[in-house]
Amino acid sequence: MTADTGTIFRLEDYRPSDFLIGETRLTFRLDPTATTVIAELDMERRAGAVLDAPLVLDGDELTLTGLSLDGQALGDDAYEATPERLTIRSVPASARFRLTIETKVNPAANKALMGLYRSNGVYCTQCEAEGFRRITYFLDRPDVLSVYTVRIEADRATCPLLLSNGDPVEAGDLGDGRHFAVWHDPHPKPSYLFALVAGDLGVVEDSFTTASGRQVKLGIYVEHGKEDRAGYAMDALKRSMAWDETAFGREYDLDVFNIVAVSDFNMGAMENKGLNIFNDKYVLADEETATDADYANIEAIIAHEYFHNWTGNRITCRDWFQLCLKEGLTVFRDHEFSADQRSRAVKRITEVRNLRSLQFPEDQGPLAHPVRPRRYKEINNFYTATVYEKGSEVVRMLRTILGDETFRKAMDLYFERHDGQAVTIEDFIACFADVSGEDLSQFALWYHQAGTPNVTASVSHDAQKAELVLELEQQLPPTPSESRKKLMHIPLSFGLVGPEGEDLGWSAVEGAAVADGVIHLKKRKQTLRFSGVPHLPAVSLNRGFSAPVNLTLAQKPDALLHLALHDGDPFCRWQALVTMFTQALIDGHRSLLADAEPTFDEALLDLPGRIAADAGLEEAFRALALTLPSETDIAREIGSDIEPYCIYGARARLARAIGTRNRDRFEALHQSLTTQEAFSPDAASAGRRALRNLLLDYLAAAERTPARAAGAFARSTNMTDRFAALSVLAHRFGGSPEAVDALEAFERRYAGDALVMDKWFAVQAMMPGAAALDTVKALMGHAAFDLSNPNRVRSLIGTYANANQTGFHRADGAGYAFFAETVLEIERKNPQLAARLATALRSWRSLEPNRRAAAQSALEAMAASQTNSRDLADIVQRTLA
Ligand code: BES
Ligand code: ZN
Q1: 555: which residues sit within 8 A by CB, 6+ positions away?
Q2: Is 288 one of the catalytic residues?
Q3: What is the pLDDT of residues 537-590, one digit of tens each?
Q4: Mean pLDDT, the chain, as a whole number?
Q5: Atom 6 in ligand 1: which residue has the minimum CA distance?
Q6: Most informative mutation of 114, 130, 267 for ligand 1 (most atoms within 8 A of CB)
Q7: At what angle do helices 602-612 and 559-566 cross, to 10 degrees?
Q8: How far is the CA of 16 from the centre of ligand 1 (A)?
Q9: Do the Cβ atoms of 496 and 540 come closer than 8 Å?
Q10: In ligand 1, which atom is closest to the CA atom of 383?
């Protein structure tokens, strides 16, 4: 591993490469422990480059075994090779030359899962961001685009399948049980999009005909015997291809598109040109093994990686500072796809929940950074919720501000203007400015300033003048190394909601820019006067979560209840409920801190019953509306001096009070939703299951006995219902014979299925209370657990640290100490995974003093003992700073 050199990469230091690589021909002689890689590079000096600049190629843990230039072996003094660098001192004066480099790599020993490695006996690669340099010396930077031809040689028996990017051009026998295949990708691409797969896998095949009539052969490769779990992924792929044609006018551009599922993968999936590689968790699904959430994730990630073909591959990033250019934009595209395939309202609420639970804490803690960072030490640590999710929100705001039609025209211009290029956020924004004629410089601050803006709003009304006054103020909190902030352009979609839930009009507005139901807050303070408003309405603000801000809106006390029952904007309706629940939970936790029993308002307790019974609402929406904020959500809203046990106590009491108060209604609805319909993963069916399972949880809380959940577990006929019942048992009745039996039965049934065992690990990692630590420690010794598999680690350790507030944040700090030790152990194999895991401690300063001190010691222990990775050092140092 690269030692912590502490090098800081800065955006302003960008310089184009002095050399270009027009063509890259690679030969792989695959061997588990000694693979030979021969790279033949057609190089040229870039016009305008420094003339006597030496050629410096990137490497990482490489061993050079041969080197020649224009066919001549290079003498020892002509070059210098270290594991990290190949320097060719004097390059021929001729503009073009050919470099041939031979390296040896050991795929079996590669536990970092970057470069060429083995997963379950399958050779595969992961090159983004800087993994290609672990395969051969190269200009491993996204602005060096090259046309690749790849020849793979391997044993036919163990590797009948040989795949790479682009289209297959040749295959044949080599004798001695070996064979070869050659692939050619005509589209110039950066090295991070290179991929190779070789092994013995099963396949599901299909085809897609593009709008202009190109026949594309589709293949999804999975472990033998799992072919029948790849059908949903294939269906999602075809729907993605069709959607990109209609929604963005983008067609696929090769004759084949392959997806390979592997079981050892650091991330969710990777968009390599024509050969996407997936974590098998995001490919394999059937009703026996996958939950509705798994199906939704598969659909979204298949779409995401496919959409990268245009936003990322055809148009790529100039440098890694521009990561949001491809990731934020592609997340926006996959969000829109899912919204069109499912329920737009439900999708939006889910996105906002996700943003708040993952991105807001990042933006409000020590790891805060702009959507487009200006500096980094380790780029792997910048694949963050800010780059991805906030990056997507910024694109969404562009559409809100410019309107659908202008947005689409600007996207068309972007594709036309920059196809085949490696570009920047400035290039992207320029397309929107050019098409709309608007000055987007203030808006662009969303890319450049870190931190979640706070917006406060207050409402007053003058009945005499029939005037409504809305006062708005923005405030930008300081973030690491950015104390002074500029004012932002915040687009707030809004409506005035009348007594029957109807949107009210007004005759004139004075004070600030309001267009098409959107307020454009650009100054620190703005006052808006709406005339022609005779009665005080409820104000529905930031509809659809048009801007990713923290909003505090002061209006008449019953306005929230009115919005919760009547707002025509489903997001704001849901938000009103969340605001009411959150307030009650914060109050409840405060009572418990003072040793008093919390009490809850009766109107609030009735509300879930009314929402649940409203047949005019989609079931999936009702399920979301009835879901209480998580303990983590409540902690974030409290913000400082967090005491997790009182939060847990308040939430458990509110759930029981809601269940008890609405028991008959919930029971009847639960009954009516219990049908024998055959399983279908579609959104409406999933919504019914979500509502039914949420009601099960409330009823179990009210009844205080595991019987109902145990019955549901025994009768379940799909994983969604089975896992929901198991969760109720484990989390509400942990330790009861029913819970113990169900956990055992689940383990027996799925012992051989690693992905399902991940659910079994996760459900136990989330069991509330201090005893969870011993449970997690014991599970690390389970036969199905494996510290070098990222899915196992995330299910057990990641879930424990991120989702179990009482179990992880034990008063004695033992959770943190165990965590630090485990992260360090993982770091020795897989630094990238360890660093991601360590971000679970990013909000340590918000804890109450004793826990804060214990968390700090754990972080310091990591800082002191971690020796070999830049990845973990960077996270720990920034978290402590
Ligand atoms: N390009 C990334 C995969 C990646 C990330 C590779 C970091 C190397 C380092 C891919 O397109 C991606 O974003 N995947 C996401 C899932 C997606 C739906 C947001 C992932 O892997 O989590
Ligand atoms: Zn992506």
Answers
A1: 458, 459, 538, 539
A2: no
A3: 999 999 999 999 999 999 988 999 999 999 999 999 999 999 999 999 999 999
A4: 97
A5: 128
A6: 267
A7: 10
A8: 26
A9: yes
A10: 7
The DSSP string of 402-471 is: H-HHHHHHHHHHHHHHHTT-EE-HHHHHHHHHHHH----TTTTHHHH--SPPEEEEEEEEETTTTEEEEE
Mutate to test the pocket of ligand 1, among 272, 305, 379 (most ligand atoms within 8 A of CB): 305
Has residue 739 got a pLDDT over 70?
yes
Q: What is the largest CA-CA distance in the chain?
A: 95
Going by alpha carbons, the residue nearest to atom 3 of ligand 1 is 270
Total number of residues shown for the chain:
881
What digits encode the pLDDT tens for the residues 776-826? 999 999 999 999 999 999 999 999 999 999 999 999 999 999 999 999 999
- Pocket lining: 327 vs ligand 1, CB cutoff 6 Å: yes
Q: What is the pLDDT of residue 866?
A: 67
DSSP 24: E
Residue nearest to atom 15 of ligand 1 (CA): 268
Cα distance between residue 238 and residue 715, in whole Å: 34
Q: Indicate which residue of 223, 305, 378, 637 is catalytic.
A: 305
Centre of ligand 2 to C-alpha 310, Å, is 12
Task: Inform me whether the pLDDT recorded for 402 exceeds 60.
Answer: yes
Average pLDDT over residues 220-224: 98
Over residues 846-869, the pLDDT tens digits come to: 999 999 999 999 999 999 986 779
Cβ of 19 below 6 Å from ligand 1: no
What pLDDT does 1 receive?
36
CB of 180 closer than 6 angstroms to any ligand 1 atom:
no
Is 624:608 a contact under the CB 8 Å cutoff? Answer: no
CB 261 within 8 A of CB 269: no
Q: For residue 248, give the 3-state DSSP assignment.
A: helix
Q: Is 266 left (phi over 0), alpha (psi -120 to 50) or beta?
A: alpha
Considering only CA atoms, which residue is closest to atom 19 of ligand 1?
Answer: 331
Give the ranges where 68-202 is alpha helix by DSSP (H). none
What is the bridge-based pairing of β-strands 146-155 and 19-29?
A: parallel
Q: What is the pLDDT of residues 322-346, one digit of tens each?
A: 999 999 999 999 999 999 999 999 9
